[in-house]
Amino acid sequence: MEKMALLVIDFQNALVLAKPFDVEEVISNIKRLIKTCRENNVEVIYVQHNDEIGDELEPNSEGWKIYEEVSPNADEKIINKTYNSAFKETNLKQYLDNKGINQLVITGMQTEFCIDATCKVAFEYGYNLIIPEKTNTTFKNGNISAKDLYEFYNFNIFNGRFAKVESMEKTIGRIIE
Known about the structure:
By secondary structure, this protein is an alpha/beta fold. The protein has helices spanning 13-17, 23-39, 92-99, 111-124, 146-158, 168-176, and strands spanning 4-9, 43-49, 77-81, 103-109, 128-132, 136-137, 164-166.
């Protein structure tokens, strides 16, 4: 039997306010997933990146805070990390294992960094992974547009190899089951 959790990775003020690719649609989709999970007793887990002092994601700075529109309730778990992977030197795997969670819906930022690393490590650990379309985003990187990065990673790297990339409707249906 699958026990699911929703991961909201690095959806922090500094990143959201820098206006990544299709951010408004991504916010809307993540909000919908969070609401559906809460209504259906599916745990929502937040991952928050800690940068160095003076960086935009410096702990306790305004930029570091989780974006208000998708922010956690007081009783929801927040995992702090310092690496791209939400698993490296955190208690995320232990937490998931203790709760019997074996299926993760992965959302957040940035597609080619923290989403990619977390997805691949979670896959290695044997989690069943779902990435709903338009629930992760990124920025232009060098000569590669944010849209191209999003599409390449989601549809050429993640889907069918490490995760199922599927429509929001299909994921909502899974949550409600």
